Amino acid sequence: MAISKLHLLFLLSVTLSLYRPVLSDIDEEDNLLAGINSYRTSLNLTTLTKIENAECLAEEIADQFKNQPCTNTTGSASVPGTEPGFPNYPNLLKKCHLNITATRDGVIMPACVPSLDALLVLNNFTKSQYSKNLNDSKFTGIGIGSDNNWIVVVLTTSTPEGGFSPATNSEEGLTFGRLLFLFLVSFFYMFF
Ligand SMILES: *[C@@H]1O[C@H](CO)[C@@H](O)[C@H](O)[C@H]1NC(C)=O
Ligand SMILES: *[C@@H]1O[C@H](CO)[C@@H](O)[C@H](O)[C@H]1NC(C)=O
Ligand SMILES: *[C@@H]1O[C@H](CO)[C@@H](O)[C@H](O)[C@H]1NC(C)=O
Ligand SMILES: *[C@@H]1O[C@H](CO)[C@@H](O)[C@H](O)[C@H]1NC(C)=O
Ligand SMILES: *[C@@H]1O[C@H](CO)[C@@H](O)[C@H](O)[C@H]1NC(C)=O
């Protein structure tokens, strides 16, 4: 009895320690969303609603940036137009079930802040070149993703060209089928 309780406690602490980094990332993202929305409110603009596909894209882009160091020319301090493009952007879109035409009017704003300090992060969006996007009524939706010292905000519009509505093709079904197949194959190898 005592052993199984210890065992449970051990499992619980492992689970908690695994989840903590994820939780703190989400806190950063929620803080930034709240900060951006109060900035919008102070400008008499509508608040931005979370768009799942935009959040997916933001996470993917943060993942691309995560190993780049913060410098005074990265992220919100970069000269507009000099940000590195992503040769695999079409793949990132595909991962998030997005069609490039549904993202054309959206904007992607990466920022690099050591340890994602909450106030610096907010200032990197509201007190930089990015603020003009936040002060634009054409944007109605938002997705935030973060990884390491990078946090990425994607803004979406309510038009078809920026609404980030999912692509309508059978890609998802195929991917799910492939996952199921892989699962079955590994199951087979494990037990037979
Ligand atoms: C927002 O609206 C209020 C009331 O309509 C007005 O007093 C205030 O000046 C406006 N603020 C901005 C930034 O437009
Ligand atoms: C960026 O940092 C470098 C080296 O630390 C410095 O020489 C440069 O002046 C800085 N640039 C800006 C725009 O602050
Ligand atoms: C994206 O959507 C448009 C219009 O719905 C369609 O014409 C185009 O072929 C699609 N592109 C891709 C890559 O799926
Ligand atoms: C953005 O974050 C950096 C830290 O990476 C900080 O040095 C800089 O002051 C911030 N920029 C603004 C406009 O707050
Ligand atoms: C926001 O945009 C409005 C209209 O374009 C402009 O008058 C105002 O100064 C801007 N405010 C900020 C803080 O950028």
UniProtKB/TrEMBL annotation:
<dbReference type="InterPro" id="IPR045285">
    <property type="entry name" value="At5g19230-like"/>
</dbReference>
<dbReference type="Pfam" id="PF25884">
    <property type="entry name" value="At5g19230"/>
</dbReference>
<feature type="signal peptide">
    <location>
        <begin position="1"/>
        <end position="24"/>
    </location>
</feature>
<keyword id="KW-1133">Transmembrane helix</keyword>
<keyword id="KW-0472">Membrane</keyword>
<keyword id="KW-0812">Transmembrane</keyword>
<feature type="transmembrane region" description="Helical">
    <location>
        <begin position="173"/>
        <end position="191"/>
    </location>
</feature>
<dbReference type="InterPro" id="IPR059083">
    <property type="entry name" value="At5g19230_dom"/>
</dbReference>
<keyword id="KW-0732">Signal</keyword>
<protein>
    <recommendedName>
        <fullName>Uncharacterized GPI-anchored protein At5g19230-like domain-containing protein</fullName>
    </recommendedName>
</protein>
<feature type="domain" description="Uncharacterized GPI-anchored protein At5g19230-like">
    <location>
        <begin position="29"/>
        <end position="155"/>
    </location>
</feature>
